[in-house]
Specification:
Elements (H helix, E strand, L loop, with lengths): L2 E7 L3 E8 L2 E4 L9 E2 L1 E5 L2 E4 L1 H5 L8 E3 L13 H6 L3 E4 L5 E5 L2 E3 L1 H20 L3 E8 L5 H13 L3 E7 H8 L8 E8 L4 E9 L2 E10 L4 H20 L7 H18 L4 E11 L6 E9 H12 L3 H11 L8 E5 L6 H11 L12 H13 L8 E2 L6 E5 L3 E6 L7 E9 L7 E7 L9 E8 L12 E7 L5 E7 L5 E6 L7 H13 L1 H30 L5 H19 L5 H25 L1 H17 L4 E2 L4
Parallel strand pairs: 1-11, 11-12, 13-18, 15-19, 22-28
Antiparallel strand pairs: 1-2, 2-3, 2-4, 5-6, 5-7, 8-9, 9-10, 13-14, 14-15, 16-17, 20-21, 20-23, 22-25, 23-24, 25-26, 26-27
The structure holds adenosine monophosphate.
Length: 628
Amino acid sequence: MPKAVGIDLGTTNSVISIMEGGEPTVLVNGEGARTTPSVVAFKDDQRLVGQVAKRQAVLNAQGTLFEVKRFMGRTWDEVKDEVERAPYEVVKADDGGVRFKIGDDLHSPEQVSAMVLRKLVADAKDQTGQDITQAVITVPAYFNNAQREATQNAGKIAGLDVLRIVNEPTAAALAYGLEKKGNETVLVFDLGGGTFDVSVLEVGDGVFEVKSTNGDTHLGGSDFDYAIVDWLASEFKSEYGVDLKADKQALQRMIEASEKAKIELSGLPETTISLPFIAMDPASNAPLYLEKKLSRSKFEELIRPLLNRITGPVQSALKDAGISKSEVDEIILVGGSTRVPAVKDIVKDLLGKEPNQSVNPDEVVALGAAVQAGVLVGEVDDIVLLDVTPLSLGVETKGGVFTTLIERNTTVPVRKTETFTTAEANQTGVEVHVLQGERSMAAQNKSLGRFKLEDLPPMPAGMPQIEITYDIDANGVLNVSAQEKSTGKEASITIQNTTTLSEDEVEKMVKDAEANAEADSQFKELAEARNALDSMRAQAVNVINETEDASDEDKQPLQDAIDEAQKAIDDPNVDKARFEELTQTLAAALQTFQQATAKTDGEAGSEADASDGGDEDDVIDAEFKPAE
Ligand code: AMP
């Protein structure tokens, strides 16, 4: 049976893990390591991925792509800083995105990430002897829809069926099995190689909710390494007058030695950095050695300015989640840099509690992703709902119908756009009523807010194309916008509390919907039949108005059918069958009228028909009430 894996596709390192004997397990790569640098290098027609690519990075700066995750799903305009920092060449793509230019070739961030994924999966196949086709991939909680889609596409390019994109902090909490506990507030502190993320989660009964996220996209372990490199270089310069940073090879060796020293200092009070033959003495032409003792306290002094940048985001995350530090039940450490003792001390001081560190911080996200993969392929029994919309979200359309845009249990963040139109001719505005719930009738669902899109130019009914977009971010904040396409007129509303319903409320709403399913569907069918008749009526009125020179003899039967339709629409006791019958009668009358008038005014008539039909194809047959 093909296996599903969990993949932490990290900024600096990636990890792949799988369920084995009911437990998530990290798989080692071809080099025998549990983490694989997310680095891809192009060198003499060769493509290198992982540790071998990382090792030659400084010597082949233009041909080595690293921290590609920073570019995923982002437009050229969004990544100005990243482009400036990158030692490799980044260019603007025709679609407004970015490409990495290596020689004459252009590579998208998705393609490069796919190369990393392919190596992880190929090594995992070798390791397990099993075919691997499905994966859960993690992303930072703050990733928007475009960044998530890009990650999903990277998986597809790598030949994977991406079962789900999961938030990294959620995966970390899953690895700890926190979903099995009662309601808990969890703070996930993630300090990796290049980025720092803090997230506050509400976890309980299998449901995860990201309450807030914060961080610093340019703070991580590499900065600690560079702090040591800077110190080594400046000490060396004052001793020998040689600038080691100007020599690429020397710089590469210092970076590697500094990272090694930093890692050693997580376990030891002191270490020695030793780099023989690092340079030539310009005076004597004799080889120079770099040999330096580095104590943990000196290292902490070097990185103090970096450590000071941790406090702000943690405090902001607590504030945004609306909690104090004493309300945090669990602290989870994620990312290799949380092994630095000074980092752990800061976390403890800031939150007044020992962090939980029983799971390896480099592996915890991938392990949680494997648990989720296991759930999705049925290997793990527990039902886990991750960061989902608890109820469907939609809009009230004509006849009091609730039209769903986002189904319940959709993973957030999510963005969905649909096109609507007007019910009446010359309607100058529409009211967008945003609701949440499972019932077919808007009135039975929970109203979240309303707004008006106004000042529309006079147009026939059904002509305006009004695009409604629902966009829920990772924090559950819903932004609804409406735009009329021909004028570009726009209006929107932001709703903060789409997920604050208690579990009981959600359950009650779902149960109510189930209990009333039959009645609701009858109501909906009735409303739809009434709306269909009303659309036909509006179209017929349009046609009559536009065909001024038609004779009364031709007009009368159609006018009668229109009047009869209007009477039925206004009568609350008319049933579905009657609406359908009247729609057919009206359609037939309209056709007869059009045929009769086409004889006298052939060309104009058929042109009008063609454009009417074209407009109708593009819009959903659901209409707003006029906004008065
Ligand atoms: P991650 O992005 O989570 O893989 O974290 C990678 C970063 O963690 C790199 O900067 C590593 O140098 C750093 N790191 C890994 N292990 C340790 C350790 N034991 N002590 C300090 N930093 C570490």
